[in-house]
Write a structure and sequence with these properties.
Elements: H1 17-23, H2 29-39, E1 46-50, H3 58-61, E2 67-72, H4 75-82, E3 89-93, E4 106-112, H5 120-128, E5 131-141, H6 154-165, E6 170-171, E7 174-175, H7 184-190, E8 194-201, E9 205-208, H8 210-218, H9 225-228, H10 232-243, E10 248-251, E11 255-261
Parallel strand pairs: 1-2, 1-4, 2-3, 4-5
Antiparallel strand pairs: 5-11, 6-7, 8-11, 9-10
Helix pairs in contact: 1-8, 5-7, 6-10, 8-10
Length: 262
């Protein structure tokens, strides 16, 4: 069940954008190839990335389309994305709830680790009306800030965060007692989508050091830099002490691409 008491605000990822490049493991090259094969991408048409963050998906899909648009509600995320210098992508500071916003039709619409922050019924309905007849919506399931094994003391990191921020997960100016919501399929189906067809990709294995893990922690909404206020440096020092010997050889979980058709 969605916690309707939580309301989005502009501080959700305040200060996190600068930590994404180092703290989030890149999507594998196979992601772009898999979607190109599944959808017959040939360099034509348009792509809309909703909740694009700092442009994480851009390297894998931008060259598969004539034009692309990335939207995000966080100004710092859009500023980071704009620095990518990809000529055929337009970056817009806006909330997904503002769609369709006169953006036109798209061959592909993606939600990568972003849909759960939105008014999902409203946004799914808008997205359905923005796809071409042969288009697709792809929901990317992935966890790119932490691996599933590799010796990083994530349980202890969680305890450290709670010792600074309290026992309930923070999110912007609010809290999420039950964590971030799932169950996105019901919203896509209610909006008229058919599917999904799932494509699974193996998660990467990477070697990371303390700087990478610190960046990963600060890249999340539940431990974004602004939440610590004047104690941010104190928290970082405690985190680095907790991490101990490095490097860490992490294996990340598999990535799932759910392909929905209008």
């Amino acid at each position: 069940m969605v916690d309707t008491s939580w309301k989005w605000d502009a501080t959700l990822f305040a200060g996190s954008a600068a930590y994404y490049a180092r703290g989030r493991t890149p999507y594998p090259t196979a992601l772009g190839t898999a979607l190109a094969d599944e959808l017959g991408l040939d360099g034509t048409g348009r792509w809309l990335d909703v909740g694009c963050g700092p442009g994480t998906l851009t390297p894998h899909l931008a060259d598969r389309f004539e034009r692309a648009v990335g939207i995000d509600a966080d100004r710092e995320m859009i500023e980071e994305a704009s620095r990518s210098g990809v000529a055929n992508v337009e970056w817009r500071l806006m909330r997904a709830e503002e769609l369709p916003a006169g953006l036109g039709e798209f061959r592909l619409i993606t939600f990568a680790q972003s849909f759960h922050w939105m008014d999902r019924a409203l946004v799914a309905a808008a997205a359905h009306g923005m796809l071409t007849a042969d288009g697709a919506l792809v929901h990317v399931h992935a966890t790119t800030h932490r691996g599933i094994d590799g010796g990083v003391p994530y349980d202890e990191i969680g305890e450290l965060v709670r010792s600074f921020l309290g026992p309930v997960q923070r999110a912007g100016q609010g809290t999420l007692p039950n964590g971030t919501p799932g169950g996105e399929s019901e919203f896509y189906r209610a909006a008229g989508f058919q599917g999904p067809h799932r494509i699974e990709l193996p998660g990467p294995a990477v070697t990371r050091d303390a700087d990478d893990i610190v960046a990963a922690v600060f890249s999340t909404s539940s431990s974004a830099p602004h939440l610590f206020g004047e104690r941010a440096q104190e928290f970082e020092a405690a985190l680095r002490e907790l991490l101990g010997p490095q490097p860490f050889h992490e294996r990340f979980g598999d990535i799932a691409l759910d392909v929905w058709r209008p």
